[in-house]
Amino acid sequence: MKCPACENELSKMIAGEITVDVCKGGCGGIWFDRFELKKVDEPCESAGEVLLDITKNEKIVIDQTKRRRCPKCTGLIMMRHFISVKKRVTVDECPGCGGYWLDVGELGTIRKEFNTEEERRRAAEAYFSEVFDTQLAAMRAQSQEHAERARMIARIFRFLCPSYYLPGKQDWGAF
């Protein structure tokens, strides 16, 4: 496979129970197949330690603004996004195979952000609460207002059509 950042040939590297593709002697980036990053993204996961110091060619300069192609899926452009709510690291993710490309140093930054997956989950919940709680409260209030209007209309119709009226069973009425 070719490196999506510098076109160098990627080499295999074993980190605990996973095998990743690294750009040794090139830009120093790492390719993680689907679900592999989750196995090394926390400081307590010792398998990730070996991936923190990949030999890099200092002469290679990477254009961070350039869109990258997935090294596995021919022709697919990867999506660039923040990997956590702290917005410290942007990663490239393939929409086809679900793999991640991390530039040199990004894994170390990811590992320093949160100590555990539980801490990461709590930070995400707090962030979403901060961003969306006001909007959700307004939607809830609007929904309650709509429900109250529906109840009021139902009461009006109940008055107009008494419950003892059964269509087609009375001698009087329109039906």
Description of the structure:
- By secondary structure, this protein is α+β, with helices and mostly antiparallel strands.
- It folds into two domains: 105 residues, no CATH class; 51 residues.
- It is built from two helices and six strands.
- The protein has a six-stranded antiparallel sheet, with no helix packed on it.
- The chain is elongated.
- 23% of the residues are buried.
Key terms for this structure?
single chain, 175 residues, alpha+beta, 2 domains, six-stranded antiparallel β-sheet, 2 helices, 30% helix, elongated
Class per helix and strand makeup: alpha+beta
Mean pLDDT: 84
- The geometry reads as elongated
Separation, N- and C-terminal Cα atoms: 77 Å
Largest sheet: 6 strands, antiparallel
Quote the beta fraction: 5-15%
* Count of distinct strands: 6
Q: Compute the number of structural domains.
A: 2
Quick take:
With 175 residues, the protein is of the alpha+beta class. Helices cover 30% and strands 14% of the residues. The chain folds into 2 domains: 105 residues, no CATH class; 51 residues.
